[in-house]
Amino acid sequence: MFKVFNALEELYLKSKESKTLECTDFLGNIIQCTFDWNMPIEIEELEKIIFEKNLKLPKEYIDFLLMANGAILYNTEEDSGYQLLSIQEAIRFTEEMKELGYDLKEEWLIFMTNLFDSDMLLFDLNKIDTKRYIIDGIEEYPTEQWKYLKCDFRIFMNRLFESNGANYWRWL
After folding, report:
1. Which pLDDT score, from 0 to 100, does residue 2 have?
2. How would residue 144 be classed by pLDDT, with cut points 50, 70 and 90?
3. Residue 127's CB: how many other CB atoms inside 10 A?
4. Are 62 and 18 in contact (CB under 8 A)?
5. Contacting residues for 58 by C-beta, under 8 A, at least 6 apart
6. Which residue(s) pair with 134 in the sheet?
């Protein structure tokens, strides 16, 4: 039996100590990207949050939280990376965006933000079983125009790894 490739785990293992990897940008240039990993969340604390907030999270996101409860990925000198939010940050940031007037549904949870703009990626917690539960939240568009990506969290992270941190989901 083979293990399903998990790019997030691979990135963690390769960058945990050095915090830096050489990456190729979409123009073919070699750039230095930094990665900063938070400490993992304790399983008891995560279970408490999931219970109290009545959350149904993707298994792969839970695995990430138990490995590193939040991370900065593919950061460059131009702040062009992503913040993969801890569970606490995800809950807090989602609430803050609602308070700022974003029309976010109750079942939506922001799990990642861009460092270079105010765009975000969200889970639709009501669609976790469909494998199409990630929403591309573009700040300047109304939420009705936000699109579901055709992948789950593991595939999303694998493709982010394959594209060296480029926002590949907008290339279509």
Report:
1. 41
2. very high
3. 15
4. no
5. 123, 128, 133, 152, 153
6. 123
**Residue spans per domain, the chain:** 17-166
Q: Where are the alpha helices (DSSP H) in 23-165?
A: 43-53, 59-67, 87-99, 153-162
CATH of domain 17-166: 3.40.1580.10
Q: Choose among 101, 90, 145: nearest CA to 123.
A: 90
Collapse the DSSP code of 43 into the 3-class scheme (helix H, G, I; strand E, B; otherwise coil) and give the result: helix
| φ/ψ (deg, to 5) at 170 | -105, 10
Report strand pairing: 71-75 vs 120-124. unpaired
The C-alpha atoms of residue 162 and residue 152 are separated, in whole angstroms, by 15
This prediction has a pTM of 0.91
38 and 86 Cβ atoms separated by less than 8 Å: yes
Strands (E), 67-157: 71-75, 82-84, 108-114, 120-124, 134-137, 147-148
Q: Which range has the top average pLDDT, 4-13, 40-49, 136-145?
A: 40-49
